[in-house]
Amino acid sequence: MIIGQEISAEDYCVNRWIKMEIWNRLKTKPHQERLRIVSSLLMGEGAIDVGCACGHSIEHMRKLRPGFTQWAGLDFSKTAIEKAKEFFPDIPFYYAKDFNLKAVCGEFDTVTCLGTIEHTKDDEGLVRGLLDITKRTLILETPARKFGGDHGHVRFYSPGDFQRLFGDYFYIVLMKWPHYFVVVMKENERTKAELLRDFSRQCGTLFHHTEE
Q1: What is the pLDDT of residues 94-151, one digit of tens each?
Q2: Global confidence as pTM
Q3: Is the dihedral of CA 155, 83, 109, 193 positive or negative?
Q4: Are 154 and 189 in contact (CB under 8 A)?
């Protein structure tokens, strides 16, 4: 459901994320739980966080998963990426001006996209870009409700909306209030029963999963 006007990633990051140092909120319990769930679902040998802003989510997740060492970040704000490189010089960061992501960063075993898709009206374009760089697993997180205040959100989702975006893939949608976690598997390395067991343990209420 469309709920607001879209603003550019550059404007959002400069005038809100950086100016207000929003990354400090990632230290709070609800955000730590959100990042714990995502980090526990990582697969393969490397991950890139798309919509990483200044890179702080990556820093939190790599502390939660110390054995998962290959990280990268990508954002659609050039200023945010410049800041990310200053904050975390040991992590490779990429700037993308559009959703043609593969030409910018290549492919990764796992792609995460947290709190980003609700900021664009062209969610299908973003999803195509995300899947294009995903080798094994895409993990997407988005709010399950409309938040008050100016968060830069232009839409919010119901569980059925994800069929439009991921209907051609094996995917699972779960919810740990107030967030949806969508896990898209491009390679079914675990059985559906295993996935449902693991993800339900992490996230709680199961809303939808595709059939094998």
Answers
A1: 999 999 999 999 999 999 999 999 989 999 999 999 999 999 999 999 988 766 555 6
A2: 0.87
A3: negative
A4: no
DSSP state of 21: T
* 141-197 confidence digits (pLDDT tens): 998 876 655 567 888 888 888 999 998 888 888 888 788 999 898 865 555 566 666
HSE-up (13 A, CA, CB side) for residue 120: 18
Q: How many helices (H) and strands (E) does the chain have?
A: 8, 8
Domain at 9-209, CATH from 3.30.70.100, 3.40.50.2000, 3.40.50.150, 1.10.10.60: 3.40.50.150
d(CA 47, CA 78): 20
Return the structure tokens found at 114: 């947290």
Ordered DSSP codes for 109-170: EEEEEES-GGG-S-HHHHHHHHHHTEEEEEEEEEESSPPSS-----B---TTHHHHHHTTSE
